[in-house]
């Protein structure tokens, strides 16, 4: 059975940030996730989550690193240490890693090499902290034009080159449906690299049940492939957050 976390950047976004964990709990879910940590009061967030009885499934980081750039190793390592400290404050098991936009005048091969080098600098720090780094391909047709990494296979190749158990993939079903489809076969092929999953429907990035993706089948495929990490609801509610979450739960085949 899938473990569902709620992205509080997109869901319950009309409420005060630190009131959202309680709303997640009231809606019947056991974890939250959010994006950057540098602009958050982490002790306040941890206290809000503890009071609501919800975990933090993941955050975005490390801050201040562009993985397509030729970054100094000591800068990357320091940023990763800071990110690990943030994750530790929240007891978050995973960190979402976005690699940055493609650079003009630099070959894709060189940019991929830089991503690998920067991740290799991050990996030992993450390993020591027991933190999983989830490298995220995004769609470049609708939401993230210019982003470097937009295919699962390319992300998998980067993770395999890094060769660390701490470095894997974030499989965002919404983004990859737009870019490549073939969701279940891709999940089966790359299941051993999956560190986090994101969920929204296509088109519109609304909740499951509003579009074309058979999420009950997708989540069953994740179960069958042995994935036991978090699946984050990262969608725009088409209705009230409560109604959208109820619709998503039904569409995903969750009780």
Task: Describe the protein's topology.
Layout: E1 3-7, H1 20-26, E2 31-36, H2 42-52, E3 55-60, H3 73-90, E4 94-97, H4 108-129, E5 132-135, H5 152-162, E6 167-172, H6 173-179, H7 183-190, E7 194-199, H8 215-224, E8 230-233, H9 241-251
Parallel strand pairs: 1-2, 1-8, 2-3, 3-4, 4-5, 5-6, 6-7, 7-8
Helix pairs in contact: 1-2, 3-4, 4-5, 7-8
Briefly characterize the structure.
The chain has 255 residues and is of the alpha/beta class. The chain is 41% helix and 16% strand. Strands 1-2-3-4-5-6-7-8 form an eight-stranded parallel barrel, surrounded by six helices.
Q: How is this structure best described in words?
A:
This protein has 255 residues and is an alpha/beta fold. Helix content is 41%, strand content 16%. The chain has one domain: Divalent-metal-dependent TIM barrel enzymes (TIM Barrel, Alpha-Beta Barrel), CATH 3.20.20.150. It is built from nine helices and eight strands. Strands 1-2-3-4-5-6-7-8 form an eight-stranded parallel β-barrel, surrounded by six helices. Helix 3 crosses helix 4, helix 4 packs across helix 5 and helix 7 packs parallel to helix 8.
Distance between termini? Answer: 9 Å
Query: What is the CATH third-level topology name?
Result: TIM Barrel
Q: Which strand order spans the largest sheet, edge to edge or round the barrel?
A: 1-2-3-4-5-6-7-8
What class do helices, strands and sheet pairing give? alpha/beta
Counted by DSSP, the helix tally is 9
Find the CATH superfamily.
Divalent-metal-dependent TIM barrel enzymes
Q: If classified by CATH, what would the architecture be?
A: Alpha-Beta Barrel
């Amino acid at each position: 059975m899938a473990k569902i976390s709620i992205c509080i950047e997109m869901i319950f976004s009309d409420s005060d940030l630190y009131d959202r964990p309680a709303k997640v709990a009231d809606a019947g879910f056991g974890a939250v996730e959010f994006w950057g940590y540098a602009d958050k009061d982490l002790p306040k967030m941890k206290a809000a989550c503890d009071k609501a009885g919800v975990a933090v499934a993941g955050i975005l980081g490390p801050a201040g690193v562009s993985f397509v750039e030729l970054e100094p190793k000591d800068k990357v390592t320091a940023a990763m240490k800071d990110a690990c400290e943030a994750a530790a404050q929240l007891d978050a098991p995973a960190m979402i890693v976005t690699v940055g936009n493609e650079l003009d005048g630099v070959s894709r091969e060189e940019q991929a090499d830089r991503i690998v080098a920067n991740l290799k600098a991050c990996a030992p720090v993450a390993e020591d902290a027991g933190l999983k780094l989830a490298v995220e391909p995004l769609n470049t047709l609708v939401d993230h034009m210019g982003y470097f990494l937009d295919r699962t296979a390319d992300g998998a190749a980067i993770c395999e080159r890094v060769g660390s158990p701490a470095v894997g993939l974030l499989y965002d079903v919404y983004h990859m449906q737009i870019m490549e489809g073939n969701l279940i076969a891709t999940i089966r092929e790359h299941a051993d690299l999956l560190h986090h999953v994101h969920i929204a429907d296509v088109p519109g990035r609304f909740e499951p049940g509003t579009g074309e993706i058979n999420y009950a089948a997708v989540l069953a495929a994740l179960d069958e492939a042995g994935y036991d990490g978090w699946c984050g609801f990262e969608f725009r509610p088409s209705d009230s957050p409560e109604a959208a979450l109820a619709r998503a739960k039904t569409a995903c085949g969750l009780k």
